[in-house]
Amino acid sequence: MDIRRLSPELSVSPQIRAEDVRAIAEAGYRTLICNRPDGEGNDQPLFREIAERAREQGLEAHYLPVESGKVTDEQAREFGALLARAPKPVLAWCRTGTRSTTLWALSQAQAGALSLPQIVEQASQAGYDLQGVVRRIANGGRTALDTVDARHDVVIVGGGAAGIAVASSLLARAPSLDIAIIDPADVHYYQPGWTLVGAGVFDPRTTARTMASVLPRGVHWIKAAVAAFEPEQDLVILDGCRVVAYQQLVVCPGLKLDWHAIEGLPGTLGRHGVTSNYRYDLAPYTWQLVRELRGGRAVFTQPPMPIKCAGAPQKAMYLSADHWRRSGVLRDIDIQFCTAGAVLFGVPDYVPTLMEYVQAYGIHLDFGETLVAVDGPARKAVFNAAQPDGSSREVVREFDLLHVVPPQKAPDFIRVSPLADATGWLDLDPATLRHKRYANIFGLGDVGNTSNAKTAAAARKQAPVVAHNVLAARGAVRGEAHYDGYGSCPLTVERGRIVLAEFLYGGKLAPSFPSWLIDGRRPSRLAWYLKERILPPLYWQAMLKGREWMAQPELVA
Fold this sequence. Notes:
Keywords: FAD, Flavoprotein, Oxidoreductase, Quinone, Transit peptide. The chain has 557 residues and is of the alpha/beta class.
């Protein structure tokens, strides 16, 4: 038997036989549901045979036959009602288990019990692909009309830095292009500024603008969330089952901060000394905690890669330590950096300078430690510490200040889509940023599986590459643009000084300035001026406006 669990209440399987029923009962199942019509196959036992064995074993048995490929809305409702009243757990079967899984998926959507990504992901984990019915799931488990609500030349999923930048770069090259951006958010954030909000340098309000004010003129704004993709039909399915058709698709919705992956964290964020510069509303709380702390233990965490801006966890730590040094209390504060990684920073050239600051601030480094739980009221953090022999042990640390960086993954609707790779990230060619399987789909920003750093600087370089290659795919321009993996991480090692890390794929250094002006391997006042005064207006007035200063794409014949 090949029994696969969809939920705690329901498992599905291919065709079972009468002689299997005893083992099924011994495994704890209390109800059987047959979704395969009798006589469908020459080697198929009749439902009556199985039902008799089920009664002998004290199991309920129900017959809800469904013709292959023709699950109706009413059958899904019947399945949901049967599942609700049947003794649990339940085992349903058909020829392969697919019809039973489809019935479950549509019934869950009809009841509003699970979201589309949850339904698709649970089915996928059991080995069943529901892409053929995602539109029905998005439509609340009901048959959707095969109509298209909107058509555009280019559809961009995501109105963050990457999405707006690529839209502006496209319009700068082809002003008449019909472009739509899909994003449900009302506010657009300059996220690189939150590090300085957490250090009292920036007012948080300067990092936020309305989405309507930053969208390029002439772009259609579809204010909705994406539910699913149908790349074979060139369609995007929105929540509520609205359908948007495209000729080229650009996918850049960013990533998901998985706060719930750390036990106890959601209930204590913003309280009990627990904060994070990765959230707009919490960065001011970081600065409040830093100002108020006069002694005790400050713990800064970093989860496994990939994460948005790999240097950000350290930036918060260095700026906090610098404030405590300037306030004369640094010697009374035990600073600990607990990182899941094995090194301080992924590009070795910058590590010596960072280590100088680690030593100067008296920071204790704990490598191979992943935050797994937080008890805010008790001021305790629990870590899973990797051991040299491959095992792990639990480490509990008390804290007065805990700066948390949550684990990060692709958005749910990306992870369960045909566009994702095996790990859930958007599957892109690292040079052209074209999807590896669908020639008219491109991607950029944090959602991609390319090995570059996930930073706004990377998106600024990627946007012109994608813009050119989209137009090349439309036959409007010649040549192919390549992205070299450029990323930048201004490491704020103290107030007024920055180590300006710039690098390409493979960690190759890629300085934008001559070393006599800014040596990126050493702390620089000019680099701080760049971060504080130049980069914000460069973001708002250049990157988001399609002005590609120092970001022109490299073309390959």
